[in-house]
Design brief:
The complex is a heterodimer of chains A (176) and B (443). Chain A has 176 residues and is an alpha+beta fold. Chain A is built from seven helices and five strands; from the N terminus they run ααααβααββββα. The chains are: A alpha+beta (176), B alpha/beta (443). At the A-B interface, helix 2, helix 4 and helix 5 of A face helix 7, strand 3, strand 5, strand 9 and helix 14 of B.
């Protein structure tokens, strides 16, 4: 079972908000990814059964939108914007630095499953470029010293087994 | 006029995003006023304000609202519900204003949407927010819950017979969903592919029902217009583009950020207000209205940022995001980066756009790498002619904006790349900048 009962109940509570069941596909894919870190083929099948929709209606959506991870990603997913605003402020140097430090290229995950490094397009925060998204959180005006500090802190968080890595606003202690 | 602010008046203050703060600063007062007048009177006021859509197209908002059918019924004579959709899928490179509204002034957006619901007769609203905005979506949800808790959303709003509720819907990383019909498909749980128009959303929108789609900023200024009257808002701008606007400045300026200014402001003034080009460098180019707007050279920036003046300058005011590039930037590389983005984001529905954006991206990368030919410059023009205006949505036009303006206005840079078989700018960075190298760069 890839999808928890709790998640299904959460989706059931959303039903009255929309006139069709199909509108729940994207919210449900989001919830599945939030829970399991990715959207697997198995979970797509389960969503199809749960929403009583053809599997293709789930799969075509999951593959259209770049945010849905069809492959497993690391515990810490670094997503550095490489679009014009960030590039004009040196994002290429940051990417190079991250690749060296993590010993992987953009688009790859480390073999220990801890890190994934991605180059992403505009994150909508060009005024505070360069922007780095780590899991769900934004880090803005990133420079090399800040990047080193961030990467160090995420490494310690993984080692300490922290629960809300890169999900500050989801942490009930920060956001009751 | 410079000092006057509508949306950013209180953003520096603590807790400005809370409903208590908003209420203490005349929040939801405009809603009371709107509910005391007829829907038509509300639309009339918005028309008088000369408010034009802040998402990019600049369509007059009042007119858009008046396109919504009055009492739509289906083939069996049953009433069709009307929907309101807020486009918060902010992703146009260079644009980051809606995020500020949603985090610092979310109740202006909510109040604006409730007023709009009264005006067009909508029963339900959706805020389609880009998926990467996790925190912003949570803040917005909290604001909606607070508004509902105090009776500004839900049944019989403020004792009137208006029933309206609002839901947050998160996108999942697709630039094209900022196009309104792609957004509606996405809201229905489908791939975000733009629809053929007509029918327009006012007839067949979300879930097949009449729908009015507006940008975050457009909704958020509505309370001001209702409270202070359309003419006051209109007077803040130009003859045909009313009001102040949130202008985003990014790239190589001293103080990048969001500036709320009159639509009369010129691009040169905006760059000066943002502190000018960083480190005293010279200006080379500006993309004035988000990445899709054709570039302007340093000589072309004495133009007001209103929709009509920008169109006259053969570019567009777009989403109000100016991306500033200094003399150090290689235009070929900058355009190449933009085209890589468009190649990635083309939804693939129309072949001209799918193939054209891919081809252009490859060609620009090739020229940047010093492997281009003079024939490539002709091919670029030809591809663009086959893309613009030939597709279901305006995305293909958006691709040709930066591509054509770069090739036409900075032709010598392209020719230098081709002739020297390398990027002169990069070569200059590697070698000490001697006069001879400089001479080659600016033939």
């Amino acid at each position: 079972m890839a999808i928890s009962q709790q998640l299904k109940e959460k989706i059931d509570r959303l039903r009255p908000n929309f006139p069709t069941t199909q509108a729940l596909v994207i919210p449900m894919l989001h919830e599945v990814q939030h829970e399991t870190g990715m959207v697997s083929e198995d979970s797509m099948r389960e969503i199809a059964v749960f929403l009583q929709l053809p599997l293709m209606k789930i799969r075509e959506v999951a593959t259209f939108y770049t945010m849905f991870n069809k492959k497993a990603v690391g515990q810490v997913h670094y997503q550095l914007c490489s679009n014009i605003g960030c590039w004009l402020n040196g994002s290429d140097k940051l990417m190079h630095h991250m690749e060296q430090r993590l010993k992987i290229n953009a688009g790859q995950s480390s073999t220990d499953g801890k890190y994934t490094l991605s180059e992403v397009e505009c994150l909508g925060a060009c005024g505070s470029a360069p922007v780095l998204q780590v899991n769900e959180d934004y880090y803005e005006n990133v420079d090399l010293p800040m990047l080193d500090e961030l990467m160090q802190s995420f490494s310690s968080k993984i080692n300490a087994g922290e629960k809300y890595i890169g999900r500050e606003t989801y942490n009930p202690e920060v956001w009751p | 006029m410079m000092g006057e602010k509508i949306l950013t008046k209180y953003i520096a203050e603590q807790n400005c995003q809370t409903i208590d703060f908003y209420l203490a600063h005349d929040g939801y007062k405009a809603l009371r006023k709107a509910l005391s007048i007829t829907p038509d009177a509300v639309i009339e006021e918005v028309k008088k304000s000369n408010l034009r859509g802040r998402g990019g197209a600049g369509f007059p908002t009042g007119m858009k609202w008046s396109f919504m059918p009055k009492n739509p019924v289906d083939a069996d004579g049953r009433p069709r519900p009307k929907y309101l959709v807020c486009n918060a899928d902010e992703g146009e490179p260079g644009t980051f204003k809606d995020r500020l509204i949603m985090t610092k002034n979310p109740h202006a957006l909510i109040e604006g949407m409730v007023i709009a619901a009264h005006a067009v007769g909508a029963v339900r609203g959706y805020i389609y927010i880009r998926g990467e905005f996790f925190k912003e979506a949570r803040l917005l949800q909290r604001a909606i819950d607070d508004a509902r808790g105090q009776g500004y959303l839900g049944k019989n709003i403020l004792g009137s017979n208006l029933h309206f509720d609002l839901f947050v819907y998160r996108g999942a990383g697709a630039y094209i969903c900022g196009e309104e019909s792609a957004l509606l498909n996405s809201l229905e749980g489908k791939r975000g592919e733009p629809r053929l128009k007509p029918p327009f959303p006012a007839q067949v929108g979300a879930f097949g029902m009449p729908t009015c789609v507006n940008n975050v900023e457009t909704f958020a200024v509505i309370p001001y217009i209702i409270e202070h009257g359309g003419p006051k808002f209109a007077a803040m701008g130009t003859e045909k583009s009313g009001g102040l606007r949130l202008f985003c400045v990014s790239g190589q300026v001293e103080r990048p950020g969001i500036y709320e200014l009159s639509m009369r402001t010129t691009l040169r003034e905006l760059i000066d207000i943002a502190g000018g080009v960083r480190n005293g460098k010279k200006l080379k180019a500006v993309i004035p209205g988000g990445a899709s707007a054709p570039m302007l050279t340093a000589e072309e920036i004495d133009v007001p940022l209103c929709f009509d003046a920008m169109m006259k300058a053969q570019t567009m005011a777009g989403s109000g995001g100016a991306i500033v590039m200094s003399e150090d930037v290689c235009i070929v590389e900058a355009t190449s980066i933009l085209l890589r983005f468009y190649e990635h984001e083309s939804c693939g529905q129309c072949s001209q756009c799918r193939e054209g954006s891919h081809w252009l991206a490859r060609m620009f990368a090739r020229i940047e790498a010093g492997k281009g030919t003079h024939d490539d410059l002709i091919t670029i023009e030809r591809i663009c002619a086959n893309m613009a205006g030939q597709t279901i949505c305006a995305f293909a036009d958006a691709v040709t904006g930066p591509a054509l303006s770069a090739v036409r206005k900075f032709r010598s840079e392209f020719e230098d790349h081709i002739r020297q078989r390398r990027c002169p700018q990069k070569a200059m960075l590697r070698a000490p900048a001697t006069d001879s190298v400089r001479g080659q760069t600016h033939v």
